[in-house]
Design brief:
Layout (H helix, E strand, L loop, with lengths): L5 H7 L1 H10 L5 H4 L2 E4 L9 E7 L8 E6 L12 E2 L10 E10 L7 E6 L2 E2 L1 E6 L2 E2 L4 E2 L5 E4 L8 E10 L5 H8 L4 E2 L2 E2 L3 E6 L3 E9 L4 E9 L6 E8 L4 E7 L5 E7 L14 E8 L5 E9 L4 E4 L3 E4 L2 E3 L1 E6 L12 H13 L4 E4 L6 H11 L1 E6 L9 H15 L5 E6 L10 H7 L6 E2 L4 E2 L2 E2 L19 E2 L17 H9 L6 E4 L7 E3 L5 E3 L18 H9 L3 E3 L11 E6 L10 E9 L8 E9 L8 E5 L11 E7 L5 E8 L3 H8 L9 E4 L3 E6 L2 E6 L5 E6 L2 E3 L2 E6 L6 E9 L2 E8 L4 E6 L4 E8 L4 E2 L2 E6 L5 E10 L12 E8 L17 E3 L4 E6 L5 E5 L5 E4 L20 E6 L20 E2 L10 E8 L2
Parallel strand pairs: 26-27, 26-34, 27-28, 28-29, 29-30, 32-33
Antiparallel strand pairs: 1-15, 2-3, 2-5, 4-13, 5-12, 6-11, 6-15, 7-14, 8-9, 8-10, 8-12, 16-17, 17-20, 18-19, 18-21, 21-22, 23-24, 24-25, 31-32, 35-36, 37-38, 38-41, 39-40, 39-42, 42-43, 44-45, 45-46, 46-47, 47-48, 49-55, 50-51, 51-52, 52-53, 53-64, 54-63, 55-62, 56-57, 56-59, 58-61, 59-60, ...
GO molecular function: beta-galactosidase activity; carbohydrate binding
EC number: 3.2.1.23
InterPro entries: B-gal_small/dom_5, Bact_Beta-galactosidase, Beta-gal/glucu_dom_sf, Gal_mutarotase_sf_dom, Galactose-bd-like_sf, GH, GH-type_carb-bd, Glyco_hydro_2
């Protein structure tokens, strides 16, 4: 419920009550509206100290203070445990005390004390007397009428007894024994709500896309009410319509028709103010109440799809816990805005509330920024709430949340935590009659199966006529899942007309600052590092993959060649937005050479005009600037009608060989000098000395002016290894050539010139089926300081997570981030990097060097990422060595499935019969140690 200040009421109701206001004092406006007085703070960023006593665990057995709202573990009390995990469970309780003043002039008013959320059982007393029955259930707003318990004109005493574990077994099964950290305390705000005796308790609104308006107004003490009115105003502040009901009951229905409303959707979240007024027989206001609403229609059509405002939609969503490392489940509107913006930045249009109703400000932000919501009654893989508690909590959830246009579906529990006897109650309580899901189950019109393998998407099972919408899929773990596999999955899901979308698990790593361990972050092993973003919203690599795959602007794959005519085939994957409402900008860029200060120079820009309707394909046409073929990168940015960046795409304008040939220094014509020992050839070229093995031709040592550059032991094949047949050394004019021949015509050739350039060409037949193929070198990790490179970045890639990295000039310092486990420094330094043109390796106490890549589509493997403690299916196998140049790489799995189960992109690369020369693979590199 949104409460409006008196001056706002005065302005908004000016037309309705202008005559009345002329004769009433302005102060009387306060009698018409709800007055809210916070006893606690308003959220994690605004808290008030109350007296507090904890029964067990840390800081127990004594009265002290605690900020409210908060989770008491995060304030140094009690003990930690993970929902279904082992460890100490103190089952501690907390006692709160707080005094507050009540003005004398509140007599005659109705005063409720409102708790937005308490974990888990709450007994409330005012001045020593019970306010009402104990409330059971952590995530639900509840209130008591305390008008008769208050002392007016003086101080009052509030006491709240809180049990972290409920006395009701079904509440513990639904909320406490789950896959998340369990906290205790008054974790959401507490306030007094002061109303006139005759007042609107709440309203339930159904506002449709065609302008049809229905509202049930629940009135306390309606005897004095002669008329009920509602004024509908747009978010621009202009009044659009006034509807009224002259027959007044405790539940009064108002109906009306708004002509040509601006409808609500995630793409255009248009909102209205519905201001309800109770009028006496003289037309004077008795009470005024305001709700923010959106006109939109939700339809679920059997064996067809979800339709919003008559348009079939696909939900691109994520599951989200209310969680913060410092505050636990205590949140704030600022944190809600941050989370919503991150989701919107990933081109998501939906979020599932897992596994409980969120703070009401989160839903308000979903309304205003635009995100579809699945709101959820708690439950998790155990018997659900019993009928009595379940119905009470369901009533509280829908009463609070019913009017949010963002909510399009309800969830009755999760993964077996469904109380099926409540299914029909959703419709009884919801004026909008939204559909109910059993997440994980084939129920009603939906199949919401969780964590299906890629093959499940063939839709050849037993539910092929159901609407398919996995409410959890691609379970993240460390750097696996989410973006890894998403392109494969989404290709099948987006092209299946009965698939209505899906929800990734989960938004953020749930690492808690353990106040019993010097604020050390704890994810309970591999149970909670499942997020797309880190615990403090650090963007992991999958963030950008999802942004790319779920971009509503889709570019057909193409390479830029000299014959490029400036055209791109594009597809509009918006539901309501024409491309003409978006802003496209093209940039033509030249990049600096390695070894210099990294710089991108924009040579030309152009704003592009594109007119493609939703669901249609068209052509994006660029005018090619003069000399474009001499430039390096074409980059296109797209911004939505609200100014949010949709995505950035980039294409190299030259092949790798064309670019590297521009950069490699011209030979001076000097000749290297060879000194031979029993096992090696020592090659001197100016200040650089190389050592090569006479046995196999491998580079064994590099020295520059007496300093060791620790690149060695390569090139070594990473698969399909063969025996050496011959190693030769000869001069070709002024260049020294060392060549190694393997059986089957595989081999490599070093070419060393007198200027210190070291050229390598390898030719090989990979194995028929290869997780990775190419060559590798040794370079000790402890001597790497960083790297700069031209290629795809800045994030590492996997075979099944290639999107999101874009072509450009990048740099990053060495880090040893173990994704989701330690460090949280992104982008991670170690791993695979795609489409590398050149890379400059920065040594730690050793000279830098540059390697130029002449071959197209080569992956640079930079060191070996440290493995998390419990990788499960996210475990990765890397080639031997440290620095690799590869034609193909392997994919990564998620928490429940190996990479091969996540779609064809993660399957090993296969190479056909390589008996013919043109089927062999080549890698051409040039090393510059100067």
């Amino acid at each position: 419920m949104q409460v409006i200040k008196p001056i706002v009421v005065f302005l908004n109701m000016k037309r309705l009550f202008s005559i009345v206001l002329l004769v009433l004092p302005v102060l009387a406006v306060a009698q018409w509206t709800n007055k809210v007085v916070y006893l606690s703070g308003t959220g994690a960023d605004n808290r008030v100290d109350w007296e507090f006593y904890c029964s067990k665990g840390r800081n127990s057995g004594k009265w002290t203070t605690i900020p409210v709202p908060s989770c008491w573990e995060q304030e140094g009390f009690g003990g930690y445990y993970y929902g279904y995990g082992s460890g100490d469970r103190f089952y501690e309780t907390g006692r709160y005390r707080h005094t507050f003043d009540v003005p004398f002039d509140w007599q005659g008013k109705v005063i409720h004390i409102v708790f937005e959320g308490v974990m888990t059982d709450a007994e409330v007393k005012i001045n020593g007397k019970l306010a009402g029955p104990v409330h059971q259930g952590a995530f639900y707003q509840f209130s008591y009428d305390i008008s008769s318990l208050l002392k007016y004109g003086t101080s009052n005493k509030l006491e709240v007894g809180v049990k972290k574990h409920s006395d009701n077994k079904s509440v513990n099964q639904a909320e406490r024994h789950a896959d998340y950290w369990v906290f205790g305390g008054i974790f959401r705000p507490v306030y007094l709500e002061v109303k006139p005796k005759t007042h609107i308790e709440r309203v339930a609104i159904d506002a449709r896309a065609d302008g049809t308006f229905n509202a049930d107004v629940y009135i306390a003490n309606p005897e004095l009410v002669h008329q009920v009115q509602v004024s509908i105003q747009s978010n621009k502040g202009t009044e659009n319509a006034v509807f009224e009901a002259r027959t007044v009951q405790e539940t009064t229905r108002i109906t009306g028709q708004l002509h040509h409303p601006e409808t609500w959707s995630p793409e255009f979240p248009n909102l209205y103010q519905a201001t309800f007024s109770l009028l006496d027989k003289n037309g004077r206001p008795l009470h005024v109440y305001t709700e923010r609403i959106g006109f939109r229609t939700v339809e679920v059509r059997e064996s067809d799809g979800i339709y919003i405002n008559g348009v079939r939609v696909k939900l691109k969503g994520v599951n989200r816990h209310t969680f913060h490392p410092k505050y636990g489940r205590t949140s704030s509107k600022a944190l809600s805005i941050t989370a919503l913006n991150l989701m919107k930045d990933m081109n998501m249009n939906a979020v599932r509330m897992s596994h409980y109703p969120p703070d009401k400000h989160f839903l308000e932000v979903c309304d205003s920024l635009g995100l579809f919501v699945l709101d959820e009654l708690s439950g998790w893989q155990h018997p659900p709430y019993d009928d009595t508690v379940g119905k009470k909590l369901l009533t509280e959830m829908i009463a609070r949340d019913v009017n949010h246009p963002s909510i399009i579906l309800w969830d009755n529990g999760n993964e077996g935590g469904w109380n099926t006897s409540l299914d029909d109650d959703f419709a009884k309580l919801d004026i909008q009659q939204r559909q109910v899901l059993h997440p994980w189950q084939d129920f009603g019109l939906f199949n919401t199966y969780h964590y299906m393998g890629y093959n499940y998407l063939a839709n050849d099972g037993y539910s092929r006529r159901k609407l398919f919408m996995p409410t959890e899929f691609l379970h993240g773990l460390y750097d696996g899942g989410h973006g890894a596999g998403l392109e494969d999955y989404w290709h099948r899901m987006s092209n299946d007309p009965l698939c209505t979308g899906g929800f990734l698990w989960v938004f953020a790593d749930e690492a808690v600052e353990r106040t019993d361990r010097d604020n050390q972050l704890d994810t309970y092993g591999n149970e909670a590092p499942d997020g797309i973003v880190g615990p403090y919203n650090e963007k992991e690599g999958s963030f950008y993959t999802i942004k790319d795959v779920w971009s509503p602007i889709y570019f057909e794959k193409r390479y830029i060649t000299p014959a490029f005519d400036g055209s791109f085939h594009v597809e509009n994957r918006f539901h309501f937005t024409n491309f003409s409402a978006c802003r496209f900008t093209a940039e033509w860029i030249t990049v600096s050479a390695p070894g210099k200060k990294l710089q991108e120079q924009v040579n030309a820009t152009a704003d592009l005009s594109v007119n493609v309707h939703p669901g249609q394909s068209g052509l994006l046409q660029l005018d090619l600037p003069t000399g474009w073929q001499s430039m390096d990168i074409l980059r296109i940015h797209a911004v939505d009608p609200h100014g949010r960046l949709i995505n950035t795409w980039s294409w190299p304008l030259k092949t790798a060989s064309d670019k590297t040939n521009e950069l490699i220094p011209v030979k001076s014509g000097s000749r290297p000098v060879v000194a031979e020992t029993q096992d090696t050839w020592q090659v001197q070229t100016g200040a650089v000395t190389f050592a090569f093995s006479k046995k196999n031709g491998l580079l064994t040592q590099v020295d520059k002016a007496g300093q060791r550059i620790p690149l060695s032991n390569g090139p070594i094949w990473v698969n399909n290894k063969k025996e050496v047949e011959a190693v030769t050394q000869r001069y070709d004019a002024n260049d020294l050539v060392i060549e190694t021949q393997f059986e089957g015509d595989d081999g490599f050739r070093w070419t060393i010139n007198g200027d210190g350039l070291l050229d390598l060409v390898v030719k090989y037949e990979p194995a028929y089926s290869s997780d990775f193929a190419g060559i590798t070198f040794s370079y000790p990790e402890q001597q790497v300081a960083g790297m700069t490179w031209l290629g795809n970045g800045p994030y590492r890639v996997y075979k099944n997570r290639m999107k999101g990295a874009r072509f450009g000039l990048w740099e990053k310092a060495y880090n040893n981030t173990v994704t989701g486990e330690s460090g949280y420094v992104y982008p991670e330094f170690k791993g695979y990097h795609a489409n590398t043109y050149w890379a400059r390796i920065e040594g730690k106490g050793t000279p830098d060097f540059t390697v130029y890549v002449h071959s197209d589509d080569i992956f640079l493997r930079m060191l070996t990422p440290q493995e998390p403690q419990k990788p499960e299916n996210a475990k990765m196998v890397y080639p031997e060595g440290d620095l690799s140049f590869l034609h193909t790489i392997n994919g990564i799995g998620d928490k429940f499935m190996e990479a091969k189960e996540l779609g064809p992109q993660a399957h090993p690369a296969t190479f056909k019969d390589s008996r013919y020369e043109h089927h062999r693979l080549f890698i051409h590199l040039t090393f510059n140690f100067n």
